[in-house]
Design brief:
Layout lengths: L1 H30 L2 H7 L5 H15 L5 H11 L7 H16 L20 H8 L2
Length: about 130
């Protein structure tokens, strides 16, 4: 009888703990917004603040999983306050690269819109060897 009661207690306790752990994950996604990132990571200039906005936007549209952002954020929070943003940015870019997520696509090179002032025959004269 005592064994059955202790088993029921352990079972109820393990279910309760797992429910609280899941709630904590859901709540952590809501806690990380752009303002919180800017404030706790000590974003100093406009570029850093825009980067925080960009990351939250990418999280909201599903490009970057919230688990990556939150994991890097928790690690950055253990660092020196003056360097937290640098740790966050470099860590997030490294993890995204490892996961195959493109954060900043490279710009596409386009042809110049202004026509050349030299004649094609003049160019070809110097290209011949």
């Amino acid at each position: 009888m005592i064994l059955r009661g202790s088993f029921s207690f352990v079972l109820a306790l393990s279910l309760t703990i797992s429910c609280f752990a899941q709630q904590r994950d859901i709540e952590s996604d809501k806690l990380l917004n752009a303002d919180r990132l800017k404030k706790t990571l000590y974003a100093k200039n406009i570029d850093e603040k825009e980067y925080c906005d960009f990351i939250v936007q990418k999280q909201d549209d599903g490009t970057i999983p919230a688990r990556l952002i939150y994991g890097v954020y928790r690690t950055a929070m253990t660092k020196d306050p003056g360097r937290r943003f640098a740790y966050f940015q470099s860590g997030l870019e490294l993890l995204c690269k490892r996961e195959g997520i493109v954060l900043n696509p490279k710009p596409v090179k386009t042809a110049p819109t202004k026509p050349s002032t030299t004649f094609p025959s003049f160019k070809s004269f110097f290209q011949r060897v």
